[in-house]
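ugh ok fine here u go
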Amino acid sequence: MRTPRIEINLSKIAYNVKKIVQLYSSKGISVIGVTKGVCGEPMIANTFLKNGIDILGDSRIANLQRMRNAGIQCPFLLLRLPSISEIDYVVKYADMSLNSEIGVINKISENAIKNNTKHKIILMIELGDLREGILPSDLEYTVKEVLKLKGVKIAGIGTNLGCFGGVVPDDKNMNYLSSLARDIENKFEISMEFISGGNSANYNWVKSTKDVGEINNVRLGELLLVGRNSLDDNKIHGLYSDAFTLIAEVIESKVKCSIPYGKIGFDAFGNSPKFEDRGQIKRIILGIGRQDIMHSALIPRLDIDILGASSDHLILDAKDKNFNVGDEVAFDVKYGAMLSAMSSPYIFKKYINE
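structure:
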């Protein structure tokens, strides 16, 4: 069968979705299914929708367009802050979007009015991770300005933690978001649909907290797809972490030195490589490389070691295993490897439903 390929078990994804939706629902929290890690793949999007998710979110307009063109019927959320240059497409393909810039919201309003529609806005609040978000001290002013605009509606507020700065969601920052929501609703006499506490990094907090406050929504991808906790990279007990399997083919198998010989400079990516002296090793090369995969987020299913990768080759120490040219090697994938594999046009996608 064609290699390299990624095999996607839709039944395992469906199971993860059901379990997570059940857990979060028990705390009064709805789940927006995030499809950016799979490039808006319609088969996976439909698996989300058939198993308890009502809204899909993606960071790329092209992925939202792909899902709409595939006939998927649900509200769509644009996760990445809109660019002014793409406002036409934001209003056309997304029902709502995350925002932090009043100038951009003005442009959305103008376009929505022109197209006789109303676009929902979730205002993102900066709570320490230093990715996107309005400073809390500027929130009231921003809400006041947005409420003046036609064509847009404030659907809620939200925050993002654990993605850039690695800030851990906890009772302190989640309670603060809840208090901001209450203040805004009371001051402006509005009711917000979403108080969106974050992403897969919120899992530990949701599991452990005794009071979720006003938080009633999260945006989840990694938990549903690879069943891992993004904060500590551990598998989540009771979820499948092997719904995605990467398969690559052996294109060379030889016994070679473990350390390059000759004068050493930079590698193809501008790094000065370091190698462990393992003596002579069974060194195999797979037909996949950095152009296709984030190799640091691969986990071999056999007891073999990944030594490194060039653009097109993945180098492994086979240890005591014997591989011949043409043999296939399987890997579990963490989120980064899944994202790169699903984004690569050079990796064949095979769907399994069992």
